[in-house]
Specification:
4 helices; mainly alpha; about 100 residues
Length: about 100
């Protein structure tokens, strides 16, 4: 897929969402979640088509947006990891014989 095709797909998607919003079907939350993936995908397309600066910028912006959306899940995984490590430390101390 070249740059013009990717831009065409993006314009068709944005136009379709605007049309559905006009009719009364709202995809704001879905688009807000998909936008980082779209930016990362367009960045990869740009990177492959030797537009390294534009592709890199789009990938970084998409990744930052995605981290913002997935911040709660990342914190949950961090908390579970800390609990598992803490329990492992308790069990390790009970196994030792002094």
């Amino acid at each position: 897929m070249n740059g013009k095709s990717a831009l065409g797909v993006l314009l068709v998607i944005v136009g379709g969402i605007a049309l559905l919003n006009f009719i009364g079907i709202n995809f704001g939350a879905v688009l807000g979640f998909l936008l980082p993936f779209i930016l990362i995908g367009l960045g990869i397309v740009g990177w492959v088509n030797s537009k390294k600066w534009i592709g890199g910028i789009l990938i970084v912006i998409g990744a930052i947006m995605l981290l913002g959306k997935l911040g709660g899940i990342i914190m949950l995984l961090l908390a579970i990891g800390l609990i598992v490590v803490g329990i492992g430390l308790f069990k390790k101390d009970k196994r030792r014989a002094y």
